[in-house]
């Protein structure tokens, strides 16, 4: 599947040995990043929060299998050494290389392994579908599928790869995203655009409600397509991030269904977002979706505890879309057809649409069902 190597100026490669992988992406340009709001931020996150202020990257190196989180001063030194190793292999200044990690918390990096893998990966860097596929596969942990997105706009391209399956909550999840564009855009504008896109995409995904220590989303602009209208760029970047976010939700640990919650009629966008995120995070909603049980009252109850003011007697709620669209509540009155509602839950995607009748704000959030397999995966994650 085409993604980052469809962007002019991007080369990628990667390898995986058991649960330990390494990806290298080479692309020079202005750069920005966002990261987890977890107080226990991983060493590579702390390192990059300072480094990204320079607003430019020439490459990114990513390891999977070890998060290098809660590792103290040694972890910071190891993250810097990982960056130095990549710089030596690429012939680049370490300060211009991004670094990210994902895997088990509370374990130290195996720098010898990273050095060997980096030496093997760099010679295979290529501007090709094979290169981006290898990179996407190498960063997977409990993911079952690679995650790619490509938006071809008018004269420029935005594309990304990411990983993420569990430990996913608003304010980023245990996800890493690497986004590239050939548009020419300054570092300050890129930071603002990325923050907005992340808020409307990755920050609206809930798999299990746990917020990770390692979340990072990087965006590098090679500039090879020249300047583009800011509004067009923002729209393309947001579309790319939403595509990746939905793929994360669909691939949630143990998941069988993608859950989408659309909220309209809220006091403002922030209020709509709060309601949508609360509903997709609800264990009761998630388990009902898994069991294809049209217990829609759980959606109303979750909306009511989101901290947003609205009149419950004016709310409308539907399930499904297109031919399966089924009304459940209309202006506060129950009109549910439970047989049709259950039919709307049979597929791989379940959609609830909630109208709060309290304003013009709207937002969408994504999640997945909660299954026995989630417990199986996480009950034995390190053993």
UniProtKB/TrEMBL annotation:
The pathway is:
Amino-acid biosynthesis; L-arginine biosynthesis; L-ornithine and N-acetyl-L-glutamate from L-glutamate and N(2)-acetyl-L-ornithine (cyclic): step 1/1
Instruction: From the UniProt record, list the coiled-coil ranges.
Output: none
Q: Where does this polypeptide localize?
A: Cytoplasm
Give EC number(s), comma-separated: 2.3.1.35
Q: What class of enzyme is it?
A: transferase
Signal peptide segment: none
Pfam families for the chain: ArgJ
Pull one GO CC term from this UniProt entry. Answer: cytoplasm
Which Gene Ontology BP annotations are present?
A: L-arginine biosynthetic process; ornithine biosynthetic process
Q: Origin, by domain of life? A: Archaea
The keyword Calcium belongs to this UniProt entry's keyword annotation = no
Active site per the UniProt annotation: 174 (nucleophile)
Which family is this sequence assigned to?
A: Belongs to the ArgJ family.
Function description: Catalyzes the transfer of the acetyl group from N(2)-acetylornithine to glutamate, forming N-acetylglutamate and L-ornithine.
Identification of the protein by name = Glutamate N-acetyltransferase
* Organism, scientific name: Methanofollis aquaemaris
């Amino acid at each position: 599947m085409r993604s980052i190597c469809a962007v002019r100026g991007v080369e990628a490669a990667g390898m995986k040995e058991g649960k330990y992988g390494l990806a290298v992406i080479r692309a020079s340009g202005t750069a920005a990043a966002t990261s987890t709001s977890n107080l226990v931020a991983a060493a590579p996150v702390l390192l990059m929060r300072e480094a990204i202020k320079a607003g430019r990257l020439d490459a990114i190196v990513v390891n999977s299998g070890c998060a290098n989180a809660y590792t103290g001063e040694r972890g910071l030194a190891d993250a810097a050494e990982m960056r130095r190793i990549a710089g030596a292999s690429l012939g680049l200044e370490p300060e211009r290389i991004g670094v990210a990690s994902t895997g088990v918390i509370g374990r130290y990096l195996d720098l010898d392994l990273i050095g060997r893998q980096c030496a093997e990966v760099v010679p295979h860097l290529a501007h090709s579908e094979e290169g981006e596929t290898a990179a996407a596969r190498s960063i997977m942990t409990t993911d079952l599928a690679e995650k790619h997105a490509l938006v071809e706009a008018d004269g420029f391209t935005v594309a990304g790869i990411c990983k993420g399956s569990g430990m996913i909550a608003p304010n980023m999840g245990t996800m890493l995203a690497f986004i590239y564009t050939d548009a020419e855009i300054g570092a300050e504008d890129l930071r603002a655009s990325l923050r907005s896109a992340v808020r409307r995409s990755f920050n609206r995904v809930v798999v299990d409600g746990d917020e990770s220590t390692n979340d990072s989303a990087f965006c590098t602009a090679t500039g090879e397509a020249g300047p583009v209208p800011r509004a067009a760029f923002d729209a393309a970047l947001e579309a790319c991030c939403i595509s990746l976010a939905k793929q994360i939700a669909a691939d949630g640990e143990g998941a069988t269904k993608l859950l989408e919650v659309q909220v309209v009629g809220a006091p403002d966008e922030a209020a709509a977002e709060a309601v949508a995120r609360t509903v997709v995070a609800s264990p009761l909603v998630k388990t009902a979706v898994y069991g294809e049980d049209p217990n829609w009252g759980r959606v109303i109850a979750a909306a009511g505890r989101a901290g947003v003011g609205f009149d419950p007697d004016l709310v409308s709620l539907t399930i499904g879309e297109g031919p399966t669209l089924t009304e459940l509540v209309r202006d506060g009155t129950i009109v549910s057809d439970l047989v049709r509602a259950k039919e709307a839950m049979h597929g791989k995607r379940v959609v609830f649409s909630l109208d709060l009748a309290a304003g013009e704000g709207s937002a969408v959030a994504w999640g997945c069902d909660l299954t026995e397999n989630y417990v199986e995966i996480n009950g034995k994650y390190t053993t």
